[in-house]
Amino acid sequence: MVTTATKVNAERVYYNYQGKLPPIPMEEQPATPPQVDDLPKLITDTTLRDGAQDSRIALFPHEERVRYFDLLHKLDNGTGTIYAIEAFIYQKRDVWTLEQLLERGYEWPKVTTWTRATPKDIKQLVEVSQGKIKETGLLASASDHHIFDKLGFRSKEEAIEKYLQPIETALEHGITPRIHLEDCTRADISGWVIPFMQRALDLSRGQAKFRICDTIGWGIPDPYAALPWGIPRLFQVLREETGAELEFHGHNDFGLATANSIMSWRYGGKKVNAAFGGLGERTGNCSLEQMIAARIRYYGDPGLDLSALEEMKQLIDGEVTPLPDRAPIIGEVFTTSAGIHQAGVVRQDEAPGGLIYLPFAASLFGRKEVELSRVGSLSGSEGIVSILNREMEQQGKEPRFSNTSRVVKQIYDKIQDEYDGAYDERAKRYTGYRRDFYTSEEIVALARELGGME
Fold this sequence. Notes:
This protein has helices at residues 62-76, 92-104, 119-129, 144-150, 156-172, 189-204, 231-242, 257-266, 288-299, 308-319, 339-348, 381-394, 406-420, 440-449; strands at residues 42-45, 82-87, 110-115, 135-141, 176-182, 209-214, 245-250, 271-274, 422-424, 429-431. The chain has 2 domains: 42-319, TIM Barrel, CATH 3.20.20; 339-449, no CATH class. The protein has 14 helices and 10 strands.
């Protein structure tokens, strides 16, 4: 093994703010992206690994793991953009799942695994995969918070020597090590991360790959943010100092996982690790579907089958854990209740400029039917018109309602009266007012009651 010139800093480096929100130190000059970046921008999926550690999930059902892999393969559509999926190897169900994934024989996504930093784990991986796994993640906790406080190493040098052992074992078995630098955004970058990366690259003759983990979501997408939190600067420095292949793994504690992941691409990273629906520990991982949208917007669509996203949503939402209604891309992004928005939605089908109040067409991500209007206290007559005309179409009749229809005005006034409630003169306030949305069935019933629908 060749010894590099960069020395390890023996002193401990901690970032302890007694549980308060950490400040963001800034540099005078911004980080700079590579002048030429011809790297493919790829995504790796950790839904079955880190995503399955979501505190809402007691168990990711066995069969649904395999079904998820099939849908991920459908999403990739032979492009290789979804480069790999991660799986565990430790329980009987993990081994069964791994066997099922490998039996699929898909070129993309590749099947990879995750192991702890011990040679024993690598040998177990070789045994359970029968030599079919050619790349695995290797945990290498990077911050002094982890090296000393969690793992109890006596020195940073001891941690390096410990981490190099499974890397060497993996190489002996023809397995490419993908080293996960856990808690890298609180690590001593120049005094431990870079020396360790250089030694791992020397040992592996350049084969080692590195995943930069923002384990507690402290990362910042601002190019002026200082190390170790500034993701642009972190990727610039690691790229320039090591030349290694870099991947980003972001958590969403401050709502910046997607932004940080995009910046990792822009500043020299090759891959981004994500989980569907942002599943994962605490507030979750970077969202797969958001990175799919970002990949297309920044670098173009390589030919992904976006219809798979709706199927994946139905699978996770129905068989694993409920997903947030307001999740970007896969949530209720096509539903509106405000009158001014509803008016825009109604008119956009014939508008020469295209969509007015929707970010993209429902059909783009596999949506077949969407409820564009909810009728609530802030709704205008457009939502009522939309519901009544849709009912007419379902009856095989020509739509005939508009904003000027008598029955639409009557329904609107009745609805607003319900939301106002009754005014109590003694209490000087409104009481008994409605607090939930009107359903489509209620709107149609009101139209019939008022004689406006046969």
